[in-house]
Amino acid sequence: MQLARKIAVSVILLGTCMGAQATLVTSDPGTGSTTVFTATGNNGFGDPGPVVVDGITWTGSPQVTYGDAGYGLGSNGSWNWGWVATNNGDGSITADLGGGFSFVGGLINYSVQGGSPDGSDPLIQALAADMSVLESYNLWTDAPIVTAGSNGAEFRGISRASSDIYYLRLVGAYSIIHSLEVGAAAVPEPATLALMGLGIAGLGFARKKTQA
Predict the structure, then answer these.
(1) Which of 11, 69, 71, 173 is most buried, taking the most CB atoms under 10 A from its CB?
(2) How many Å apart are CA 180 and CA 132, to the nearest integer?
(3) Residue in 205, 198, 185 with CA at minimum distance from that of residue 22
C-alpha cells in the first residue's frame, strides 16, 4: 500500500512538472543575451518589413515602426527613445531570434485608454521555426502592465523546457518593446522528466519483484 502511494505521488509530481514546461515570466532573469533598441529617427510607418533594428529582424502586420520620436501609450505614459512598436491597435510585430531558444522576453508596454486596452488585448507569443504559435499569453488579463510618465515598461517573457522558440510576437494595443532578451529557461528539461519517469517505472518494477 505504501509503495502504491509513492507511485501515485510520483505520477502527480511528474504531471506537475510536465504542466510547468511553459511559463509566463514577469521579471528579468538576467541570464540571457540582451539587445537594447537605440535606433533614432521615426522609421517604418506603413512598412511591413522586414527591417533590421539593432541587429534584430522585424516584420509587422500591417506595419513595424521604430525610432526615438514620441509614441503615446494613453494612461501608460509615452516613449521618446529606443522603441520598436506596432503603431496599430490590432496589429502585430514579430522578431526573428536567429535561432532556437528556451526563453525570450523584454521590456514591454502597451496603450491603455479609458481603463481598457487601446484596441485588441495585448498578447505576447512564442513561435516555432515554422511560425506556428507555441505559447500565447494575454498581457492585460494574465500580467497587466501599469506605468506612467515617460519611457516606462515592465519585463514580460516566455520560457519553455526546450529550445524551440524562434520568434517573438507582440499583438494588439499599440504594443511597444524597448529591449529583447533570449537565453535558457529555468524550467524542467526533458531529460529531468525522463529520469523521473524512469524512477516511477523502477518503483513499479520493485513492487512486482516483491510480489513474485
Answers:
(1) 173
(2) 20
(3) 185
* Least confident span in 43-47, 157-161, 203-207: 203-207
For 37, the grid coordinates are 533598441
For 5, half-sphere exposure in the C-beta direction (CA atoms, 13 angstrom radius) is: 2
Kindly list the structural domains of the chain, giving each domain's residue range(s) and its CATH number in brackets, ordered by start: 26-189 (2.60.120)
- Which residues in 45-62 are b (16+ Cβ under 10 Å) and which e? eeeebebebeebbbbbbe
76-123 residue pLDDT tens? 999 999 999 999 999 999 999 999 999 999 999 999 999 999 999 999
Instruction: Classify the phi-psi angles of 3: left when phi > 0, otherwise alpha if psi is within -120 to 50, otherwise beta.
Output: alpha
DSSP, res 154: E
Element (H or E) spanning 160, and its range? strand 154-160
Question: Is the pTM of the predicted complex or chain greater than 0.85?
Answer: no
